[in-house]
Hints:
Number of helices: 21
Structural class: alpha+beta
Keywords: Signal
Number of strands: 25
Strand content: 15-25%
Radius of gyration: 37 Å
Amino acid sequence: MRSGTRQRLAGVTCGLLTLSVAQTALAADQYLELEPPKTLTGRGYGYNSISREFVLRQCVQFGNALLDGSGASGDEFKFSSIVSNSQLADEMNLAVNTKFSASMGLVSANASSKVDFFQTTKTNFNTHTILAKYHNVEPMKFVAGDINLKPEYLAMVGTPAFRQQCGDYLVIGEQKGRWFFGTVQLSVRDTLTESKLAASGVIGVDYATMNAEVGVSTINKLKQASNTQDLEIHVTSSGTNSASLSVEQFLQQVQAFPGQNGAKQTFKLMAVPYEDIVANWPVNNPLAPLTSEQKLTKLAEAAWGLTALIDDSDFMIQNAKLFALGTTPAKRDARIAYIKTRRAFYQAQLADMRNRARDCDVDWTGQPACESLYDRWKDFEDFVVAEYDQFPTRYVSECYAARDAGEAIQSKLTQALATTTGQFSNTKGDREMGGGPVNFSANLTFKPDHTGGDPLDVRKLLSTLKIRMEESKADHTTFETTLKTPVFDLAGPTPGETLAQCSYQGTGVKAAWVTADAEAVCGPMKALNKGAYEDCVQMIQNAKYHGMLSGKTGEDPRTETFNKNARGVLTAMKCTVDSNASNDTPMIGCQSIGLRSIQLDLVNRQDVVADKWVAPKKLDVKKLTPLIKPTMQRSNALRKLIAPTPVVAAKAARCGEGLVNVSGQCLPKLRKSR
């Protein structure tokens, strides 16, 4: 039976199961699902729940007849995105007691290769994990007929020698089949790779968590976005264990395994206490204590969750540059200090839990700490969401990388200039330039295209290009235009990456302001009127631009290239400034523009949000009281990832002769029930 089924048998549904199902929970707890060991075992062998080891001895006599029970069987193939070891255990159908033992660090040395695989696969939010699984298993086959202790062991009942030689549980059911489990894991330690994953749709832009729907294409995207050596591939199966050298080999194994022939091996075992199944067991001589599986599951989930919080904290501390911690060193240092404090809290809680809960799977009721630990951690899901709500968001956009947008901006401006011919305004004099000379000037500035709302949500960079052409004789005929053009869009297509988390900072570009030569313009006034001179200088200094260009043509100009007096990012422009016609208006215009390298000035929006974060006042408590509440969007996203799949009551089954219905499952009838 799958661990999810075991939970249903134990009546774990947060109050969703009917009363009749809940009443049978105690009976279900008498059936212990086990993962097969590497050592010899099978029906009729024993299991010692105290030492968590199988006994290599059959202390009972029974016939060869078998009964087909119900449980997880048939063919299943799927890919899953995994974010926790608890989720991985459920996807692998691990038994509850194995899940608990593994979470407490108590797994037996002779555990199966499947358990070894689980033990060596660490999952958390900062590691992207895809599980490929296949299994084709038969129904559980149980011992049919009476089971009796062999005479030489009957006299040992009630003594430590019996548990040592025979165990306290008896294996009565065995399930066989073929299975394959393989993981592809990627721990991303650079923002560019994370940005590529977000752009390809593998992870979400806001919180860098893998999307639920995964498959072969997702694995290939992981490979394309990262260096091959960063991908860790881990495989186990009922046929063999292998280390795939490449993604291609891994996918070949995954796709080929279901169609291959191979010997079926033990997939799962079922055991019950000797006294509940053995026909000649002495009356009033109990041996195996009952456990509370649904509560064991909660403790196991809490232990794995604390482990994941510790691992994620370590990752954030060691890779702080990958997280939105604030825009100043002081803010970033304070956030890291907070994470270190919480990390120490998780470690202390995990150590306390493992110390006090070591024997909870052996005897729940006999260990007072078990129930108190369960009461403390039964709402672990809420605790985890609250903790991750206080953790910084991971960068998925390369906002701070050097980004030269000069060519892209030049292309946008050139396209816009093509529409200006014939569109200049005649602001002075007649419409004829009169054969020149012509004074030319152009000024270029940039700023985020903000028209209201949150400035962090501004996606477009706006350029303002002012162009002026003035006849230098006669009536000083003048043509002017102001061109406002969106030149860069953060939401636009960026090949291979995303800028979704980025916002413009300041003017949006890392370009120094330039001004006209104040002395050249205002100098002649100095001797005539000092006040006018100072006003002129101030006016010139206030007129700041990112790019300036000026020039003067000779006689009879037509289309001219201006590049002599360039300042800032503007280097050249090609414009038609005159024609042979009496009305130059239709011909006045510009065809091209030249720009220097222009670096965008971006900030990660999450860093700006992180500037508002303040650490909770008390850090040595389970339930934090944050001073800055997280967004509902983030809380809901985290809860969706963490929350277990809702459990529904199993459908009633009509069982064959010799089996009884226990919470919808067909299991051997026990000799007695508690």
